[in-house]
Amino acid sequence: MTARRRKPLRIGLIGWGAINRHVVRLLSRSVVAEAVSIVAIGVRSPERAQDIPADASLLTDPQQLAGLDLDIVAEAAGQPAVALWGESALRQAGAFAVTSAGALADTALLERLMSVAEAAGSQLVVTSGALAGIDALAAASALPLDEVVHAIVKPPAAWRGTPAERLVPLDALTAPASFFIGSAREAARRFPQNANVAVISALAGIGLDRTRVELIADPGIAENCHRLSAHGAFGRLSVTIENRPLADNPKSSEMAALSLVRMISNSVSPLCR
Ligand SMILES: NC(=O)C1=CN([C@@H]2O[C@H](COP(=O)(O)OP(=O)(O)OC[C@H]3O[C@@H](n4cnc5c(N)ncnc54)[C@H](O)[C@@H]3O)[C@@H](O)[C@H]2O)C=CC1
Ligand SMILES: O=C([O-])CC(=O)C(=O)O
């Protein structure tokens, strides 16, 4: 009897930065290494892209996703890349997995991508990114939720180059400083490199306008921390994760790459966990 053989999963990546490079490194060392193939990578400047996986071609135009027979297109390129590549990815692949989830705070974009997915029979996937507890929050939302609060606490270095620089003296802090309290929608819009996670917790729970987000710079920590709390008909949830920042980009967490690796592994593994 011949055993049924699964075809290698054909993956397209959008962005070849800290997260996606780490995803490829982790996958190549994982038990599913032989079961996945990185077929294409969408980049802005092909001449600058280094250490490209052997079988991958570089793309600069979303239309080039056509004909590649992709299973998953995984984005980790920044919020503008979601609008740029999303529709083509959803037409050409079974799933478009978004890491720059903050882009989906634009409700018109979210609705457009969902309707393309529906027409194409594909799926827009919001990965759990740097967060913990999203599975439970999303499950809890099947019953009424009263409140979801998400605090994002990062070292001052992670807030450099963002509007936080004008709101707190990042280099002179001696204690944690809160510099934003507002909706998930506003947090993602104003802090596109640091608050994508606010949209992940919002889409999992009570939406972009009811989810309360607090942003904090803490000189006493080295990790990117997320404190998620919720209560409702299911009971109470309180989850904290202290993420190691990625060596190549301190604004991003190791867990953002690990979540993508989990999503890809679950797509090919006989055990989904
Ligand atoms: N959901 C989550 O938990 C998290 C989400 N993020 C999101 O992931 C994004 C990527 O993170 P990193 O890899 O750390 O950033 P990075 O800056 O190291 O890499 C991003 C790469 O994407 C490329 N790029 C930009 N626009 C592009 C486009 N239109 N098409 C193709 N490539 C493009 C850049 O040239 C760069 O090489 C962040 O900008 C942020 O939006 C980051 C951390 C956590
Ligand atoms: O990596 C993190 O901790 C979260 C992050 O940068 C984001 O949501 O953009």
From TrEMBL:
The active site is at residue 226. It catalyses: L-aspartate + NADP(+) + H2O = oxaloacetate + NH4(+) + NADPH + H(+); L-aspartate + NAD(+) + H2O = oxaloacetate + NH4(+) + NADH + H(+). NAD(+) binds at residues 130, 196. One of its GO terms (molecular function) is NAD binding. It is an enzyme of class 1 (oxidoreductase). Residues 15-126 form the Aspartate/homoserine dehydrogenase NAD-binding domain. Pathway: Cofactor biosynthesis; NAD(+) biosynthesis; iminoaspartate from L-aspartate (dehydrogenase route): step 1/1. Its EC number is 1.4.1.21. Residues 174-261 form the Aspartate dehydrogenase domain. The keyword Chloroplast does not apply. It holds the Pfam family Asp_DH_C. Gene3D superfamilies: Dihydrodipicolinate Reductase, domain 2 (3.30.360.10), NAD(P)-binding Rossmann-like Domain (3.40.50.720). InterPro entries: Asp/hSer_DH_NAD-bd (IPR005106), Asp_DH (IPR002811), Asp_DH_prok (IPR020626), L-Asp_DH (IPR011182), NAD(P)-bd_dom_sf (IPR036291). Keywords: NAD, NADP, Oxidoreductase, Pyridine nucleotide biosynthesis. GO terms for biological process: NAD+ biosynthetic process. Specifically catalyzes the NAD or NADP-dependent dehydrogenation of L-aspartate to iminoaspartate. The iminoaspartate product is unstable in aqueous solution and can decompose to oxaloacetate and ammonia. Belongs to the L-aspartate dehydrogenase family. HAMAP family: NadX. This is L-aspartate dehydrogenase. It comes from Bosea lupini.
